[in-house]
What does this fold into?
Amino acid sequence: MTANGVESVAGVDGRHQFIPVQKQDLIEALAVSGHPGQSQNDFRTFCAFLSSYYHHHFYEELTELKDIHAWFAPHGPRPVRRKPVDLDATYRDLTSTFENVMTQAAFVELAAADVQALGGEHPLLDVKTRTPMEAYESVRIFCRGKTSQTIERRGALGRRGVATIADVFEDVVVMVRFKREDASEKKNGASLAVDRPGGRQPGTVLIKYFRNISRPELPMLLPDVRIVMKQKDMLLLGGPALLGGVPIVINLMPALSVLLVVAGAYLGFKGAVSQDQFTKAVAALSVLIGAGAFIFRQYSNYSNRKLRYQKELADNIYFKNVNNDAGVFETLIGAAEEQETKEALLAFHFLLQEGPFASAEALDSRIEKWLAATFGIDIDFEVPDALAKLEQLGLLTHDGGQIGTVPLAEALVRLDTLWDRLYDFKRPAQTHAAA
It folds into this structure.
């Protein structure tokens, strides 16, 4: 693992398995590289068949995710069931199905140790944050599409910023479950909802999808992240307060004593107040008002600085948020469909046009070289997974230790047959009464 804790979201050789190319762009590039003439139309038809098949394949998982998540949704009515529901078992089903979809969409989970270490100073926004881990029962962060980018940190007083190199993730999904109430809290009738970020109910699950997030920005994605004053800010605010407060404190004690004498006279505890004492009392009151104004000004400076930092944080994240809660499932299922389809298409194309291959490693190397030459991307292609898909679809062939695929025309027939079997409804035979 690297020092910044991001190696856990890459492959064993540091490359990711996500194919950062639009599906239609990939289809067009494959169609014109090895499918001359009329067969280009047949190949595009094959791609449409395959895309439709995987769309139907993932529909069940989408429905299941939405149905299970409804029990933990931060907003909206809970599902109605006649039988009691084991929420612990239901949550395990949610995480299991969610993990499966994330894997199919080529997301990799950030290591638990890295998640626990989130927080501290933000080098890009010049702020320091505190992540309320005590409010969460579990925090899981999934990333994909890691690249290194040079990001310029803003300089003070208009000066040119300092350039820093940071890992940037194309897609980031955060899944947070808030702590549930324990027995003692329920017994006392206390509700933790007021202590949860945004008033979330205990035990609810928050899911958020972000795009183009740098490694230092990850702490900002968690709910109720708080801005903490950095030591530099404390010195800028506390230094003048300390220097300016010394003379006020020196004059404050005598002023208080004069005010007490005058107050005692007006309350009848002492005789009449002389003009000199009254003048001193007014001066003492002015000292107190000045001290209060000074304290209020310093507190306003502190609050304004925190608000400015909070606004920078909100502005930075607002435009990077893609989807939330149940809406995330639609985006993830679409991403999983595309990833599965692209992997199967790449394997089928190269087995059809350049195969058969002597080994999966040879096919893997050929596909990775073509992606690098065509789109300029360096990924770790999942050839075993792609071959397993073709095997499941009945498109893979084995001959003398070599792997290949059926001809395009036969592949179309087999996919058409698979699609017809998805809705193979047979009307029951009708019986006719004897005349």
Observations:
- The radius of gyration is 33 Å.
- Strands lie at 108-109, 120-122, 127-130, 136-153, 162-178, 205-214, 226-228, 321-324, 396-399, 402-405.
- The longest strand covers residues 136-153.
- The chain has a mean pLDDT of 76.
